[in-house]
Specification:
This protein has 205 residues and is an all-alpha fold. The protein has one domain. It is 59% helix and 0% strand. The protein is built from nine helices and no strands.
Length: 205
C-alpha cells in the first residue's frame, strides 16, 4: 500500500477539526411538529453527516430502512404517517449504533415503549457520551498517528509508523470495541450467580 504522507496528515487534521465541532442535536432542537418520511430522511442525513463523501455512494438511511425498523418493532410507529421528536431520537441512536452493533442488539440499549421523558433522559445521556467519546477518540488517533503528523516528543507505544499501520490498528481497535460492547450487552439483567462465571460454577459443583 502506498500513501502520500502529506495528504494523509492533512486529511487527519481536517477530520480532527470536524470531530471536535461535531455534535448530535440537542433534544429541544429536534423537530416535534410532525415530519413526513422524506423530511425525516433528509434531516437524519444532516444530523449524521459524519461519513466522508467517498463512502456516500448509497444513502445510509432510507424510507425502506425506517419502515423496516417500524415493522420489526425496533422503533415506535409514526402517527398518521408523521414522525415526531420521539421517532427522530430513536432513529438518531439506532443509526449511530448500527455502525458497530446489530439491530437486535441495539434494542437492548434503546427498547421500544419508552415514555417521552425516559427517552429524553436516555437521548441526552447518549448525545453527551457521543461527544465525550469523540473527544477521547480524536486524542487516541492523534497519539497513534504521531509519526504521520510529525508530533514532537517520544513516540507512543501504539504509534503507527505509517498509514498502513494506522489502518490495521484502527481495524483491530474497531473489532475489540465491538466485541466488548456485545459482551457487556449479553450481561444485561444477569448477576454473578447466573452470569456464566466459570469460577462460580466451579464452586457450586
Amino acid at each position: 500500500m502506498q500513501y502520500d504522507k502529506d495528504l494523509i496528515a492533512g486529511k487527519l487534521r481536517r477530520w480532527e477539526k470536524y470531530m471536535d465541532d461535531y455534535r448530535l442535536p440537542d433534544w429541544d432542537d429536534i423537530p416535534n411538529f410532525g415530519l413526513y418520511m422524506e423530511q425525516v430522511v433528509s434531516l437524519l442525513s444532516e444530523y449524521l453527516d459524519y461519513l466522508p463523501p467517498e463512502l456516500k455512494k448509497e444513502q445510509f438511511i432510507t424510507a425502506a430502512t425506517i419502515n423496516n425498523y417500524v415493522r420489526k418493532e425496533i422503533m415506535p410507529e409514526p402517527v398518521k404517517k408523521r414522525y415526531y421528536r420521539l421517532h427522530i431520537a430513536y432513529l438518531i441512536i439506532i443509526c449511530t449504533l448500527k455502525q458497530s452493533l446489530s439491530i437486535q442488539t441495539i434494542t437492548t440499549v434503546i427498547p421500544v415503549g419508552l415514555s417521552e421523558q425516559e427517552l429524553k433522559t436516555l437521548y441526552n445521556a447518549f448525545a453527551e457520551r457521543q461527544r465525550l467519546t469523540a473527544v477521547y477518540f480524536v486524542e487516541q488517533v492523534r497519539e497513534a498517528a504521531g509519526p504521520i503528523l510529525d508530533h514532537e516528543g517520544p513516540a507512543s507505544a501504539i504509534a503507527a509508523k505509517d498509514t498502513a499501520d494506522l489502518i490495521i490498528s484502527s481495524a483491530i481497535v474497531s473489532s475489540f470495541t465491538k466485541l466488548l460492547a456485545e459482551k457487556l450487552l449479553l450481561l444485561n439483567g444477569k448477576t454473578l450467580e447466573d452470569g456464566g462465571d466459570i469460577l462460580v460454577k466451579a464452586r457450586k459443583s
